[in-house]
Amino acid sequence: MSETEGFQALYNKYRPQLFSEVVGQKHIVRILQNSLAHNRVSHAYLFSGERGTGKTTVARLLAKAINCLEGIQPEPCNRCANCLQVGSASFIDLIEIDAASNTSVDDIRDLREKVRFRPSTARFKVYIIDEVHQLSRSAYNAFLKTLEEPPDHAIFILATTDPHRVLATIRSRCQHLRFRRHTHADTVEALGPIADGEGMVVAVEALHLIARNADGSLRDAIGLLDQAIAFVEESLTEQDVRDMLGLTGTEASEALAAAIAAGDSGEAMRRVNQAVQDGHNPASMQQELVDYFRALMLVKTGRRDQNEMNFAEGEIEAMEPVAERFGLGQLVRCLELLGESGSFGRAGQSAQLELELALVHACLMMAGDGAAAPVAPSAPASPAPAAPTTPTPVVDATKAAEPPAEPPASAPGAADAEAGAAPTATATATAVDATRPAEAAADAGAEADQAEGMKKPGEPAGEPAAEAATQSGALAAELAARGDQLRDALRTWSPAYEPYVSNGRWHDEDGTLVLTPKFASHYDSLVRAESKERVSQIVAKVLGKPVRIRISSGDATPKVVDGDPRTDTLIQAAVTIYGAELVDDE
């Protein structure tokens, strides 16, 4: 290149000059080439699609093909004066208008006046109106008649990224051609020859990383390659692209995924903090994690198509052992937690905090599912009783709810109550060990409710809660007797959801089976209509009769069984958790 020759951006330098060079829009090319071959070119086209998908490029190729001096043909000759002028953007009968800056009715009236004049040297005068959806409504109305019945020497090509904002009366007067996003493989394949043409040695992993960050836009991908070439001298590696874009890379995402799988929130937060100190953007890190967990989900479901995953083959192979550490339901929940966070539009500490919260929630969710040591989730399934700082107030059992007609024979705490003194209408629960600090009481309550699940009232303090959980009532007892059959049916439906049901508490309530999941994350998954309906069908099949199912968050106040304070579940829970005893109120 001479010193006087201006620099040309790569996406302009390597813009396709033939239909055969267009990447990823074979359906569009086929329609236009068939129209050219049979001389059936329309008077108006609407090209719609995302940015960088080739709308303007194809519009110029169509203008070149219909004005080629060798005749209208599926491919322009690229040798005649008209073809060369269109290729250099100096063709006088090709008028490109930016509707974003020419939105008024006066601009369209000026166009209507000029369109009547015949082309200077070409067969057709071609108008390319970009971002046509930004025209004002009055401009649309002024344009309608000209667009419907233009002069026989004029062809209109309208381009837009938002076709729904174009008036239906405009769309109905055009042939609407929809451009597709470029696939990952097409983008990588297109970048290779451009790098070779610039004399650069580019690692294939670097091309994959550029394509992944271009998000389906070939122009954006070529622009990133142009930027990367300026970043290095002779060769381009994946690490160079990461440094240029400020990305942490798949190794960092893999390490964070391993921390989540182990339920190690401390390690996850340490890695985020280290990455931020190294200058990485938390919002970019979160987007990388979302992409990585989406790829893990696809690996878990057996899909390994690079066009779906947007990762290189070697990266996909490295994901397989990581995906084995998660259940499919857990991967879905991790994606929900990372995607729900609002850090994508934030910066600085706010974005870092949002990312850290999402990671900690994911770690707690994994720990709660038994993938690691149990850790209390951020939102417990049922509220933990507050630690008493003063003696427990008197509980008046006469004001409690009415007892059911036939209280369960196995009412919790009944045996303990028989050994005690005869109850009166009012009983006072008094703390035995008043010297225990309030903090220890709070910890005991939180562990009993959150880490272990709600214990049976009357169960001695310090003993673990019942497995798969506490059952009460005839239906619940029948279901518990068929626990193995229920678990097998649940695993057949969804291995990820089986522990959500099996680890919950079942009890009867007015002929309805009520399931209280162990953790809030389980409740969030099971309370959805489709999950609840499926669980109901499985339980009915196991029991061999129709049943009503309700999913409870565990927030309801326990019922008084028969008015006796010794069998009041609220009082018994206080006795169990705080080490109190019942005494008569004389």
Give an overview in words.
- The protein has 586 residues and is of the alpha/beta class.
- The protein is built from 26 helices and 14 strands.
- Helices cover 47% and strands 10% of the residues.
- The strands form four sheets. It has a five-stranded parallel beta sheet, with helices on one face.
- It has four domains: 10-178, Rossmann fold, CATH 3.40.50; 184-245, Helicase, Ruva Protein, domain 3; 250-368, Zinc Finger, Delta Prime, domain 3 (Up-down Bundle), CATH 1.20.272; 383-586, DnaA, N-terminal domain (GMP Synthetase, Chain A, domain 3), CATH 3.30.300.180.
Q: Which structural category fits the helices and strands?
A: alpha/beta
CATH architecture of the largest domain: 2-Layer Sandwich
Q: State which percent range the strand residues make up.
A: 5-15%
Shape: elongated
The order of strands across the largest sheet is: 2-3-4-1-5
Please state the average pLDDT score. Answer: 77
Helical content stands at 40-55%
Rg, Å, rounded: 35 Å
State the helix count. Answer: 26
Largest sheet: 5 strands, parallel
Count of discrete structural domains:
4
Task: Please write out the topology.
Blueprint: H1 10-13, H2 26-37, E1 44-48, H3 55-66, H4 81-87, E2 94-98, H5 105-115, E3 125-130, H6 137-148, E4 154-160, H7 168-171, E5 175-178, H8 184-197, E6 201-202, H9 204-214, H10 218-231, E7 235-236, H11 238-245, H12 250-261, H13 265-277, H14 282-300, H15 306-309, H16 313-323, H17 328-340, H18 348-368, E8 395-396, H19 414-419, E9 426-431, H20 438-451, E10 471-472, H21 474-481, H22 483-493, H23 498-502, E11 505-509, E12 512-516, H24 520-526, H25 529-543, E13 548-551, H26 569-578, E14 580-584
Parallel strand pairs: 1-4, 1-5, 2-3, 3-4, 6-7, 10-11, 12-13
Antiparallel strand pairs: 8-9, 9-14, 11-12
Helix pairs in contact: 3-4, 5-6, 8-9, 8-10, 9-10, 9-11, 12-13, 12-14, 12-18, 13-18, 14-16, 14-17, 14-18, 17-18, 22-25
